[in-house]
Amino acid sequence: MSVFSRMRRFATSAPDDITVRSFLCGFTEPCTLSQGKEQECSSIVRKNTDVISWSNLIMGYAQFGYGEEALSLIKTMKDHGIKPNQLTFVGVLTACSLVGLVEEGMELFESMEQENCVGPTREHFSCVVDLLARAGRMEGVEAFIGRMHGNLRA
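and the corresponding structure tokens:
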């Protein structure tokens, strides 16, 4: 709750309904995901048009190795007309890496800039290197690093 106190003190606005819901979902994700009750947070998030709430749930899926669910959620998010941001892609790429969804992760990475106007950052490149390395695709890592050289953004 000290987070909300600090927001009131240092921010230009007080925590709103979306902030509180996102906080509660983020706070309860370990419990709800491990108990198979992700629908509770998912239903709250699906009612929001806020990319932060969606990205928060995707990061929770990534943290606990729910790659398929993270991929499904980003698709649903796009279907609802919500544009994923850089954090959203870090979450989904991380989820893909943790469960070995190499092709899906690479397709997602390739679509970031072309379909979603989100330029890859060092974090995204790191996620792809991790994705390929965990799958034992060292030749792919070398090729990817060679391809990304010169494309890195701060």
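(Above: one complete record from the training split.) Residues 15 and 83 are 22 Å apart (CA to CA).
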